[in-house]
Predict the structure.
Amino acid sequence: MTLQVIVEGYGEVDAIPVLLERLRKQSAAFRLRIGRPHRRPKSQLLQKESLQNAIEVLLAQADDERSGILILFDGDDHCPREVGPRIQRWAQEHARGTPCEVVVAWREYEAWFLANVGSVIPGAPEHENPEAPRNAKLEIGRASCRE
């Protein structure tokens, strides 16, 4: 199976395949090839036509019938419970039966790493409230300095 990914940021283009591969290895559930993420600015992911255009690009690149699409972006100030289902509907409308899932990180996806910063920076102390900072990358950097 090939997982094709749509992300919003330049950093995620390189980082998300590493994260997904790590999760795949830990689960040992199945064989999965992770395609190079397709980047689109979040403003385009929040618009139906632009989102569906990005999905069309991935569908044209699909190399087998068992592909799936993951759309991942930061929620920033948008509520994931409100934005996620809308984006999911638009994606599934256009994915022509290809499994398609949407993940909207509360604030920013780097907060996931901040939540378990010790797995990223051995010996770093736990963060009290990983979803509160507006710049989780900066907080991770601070944790590495405290180490």
About this structure: Residues 1 and 32 are 5 Å apart (CA to CA).
